Amino acid sequence: MQRHTISVLVENKFGVLTRVTGLFSGRGYNIDTLNVGPTEDPSLSRMTIVTRGDDATVEQIVKQLDKLVDSVKVVDYRKGDYIDRELVLVKVHATSASRGEICQMAELFRAKVVDVQPGSLTIEITGGESKIEKFLGLMKDFGIRELTRTGQVALPRS
Amino acid sequence: MQRHTISVLVENKFGVLTRVTGLFSGRGYNIDTLNVGPTEDPSLSRMTIVTRGDDATVEQIVKQLDKLVDSVKVVDYRKGDYIDRELVLVKVHATSASRGEICQMAELFRAKVVDVQPGSLTIEITGGESKIEKFLGLMKDFGIRELTRTGQVALPRS
Question: pTM of the prediction?
Answer without folding.
Answer: 0.93
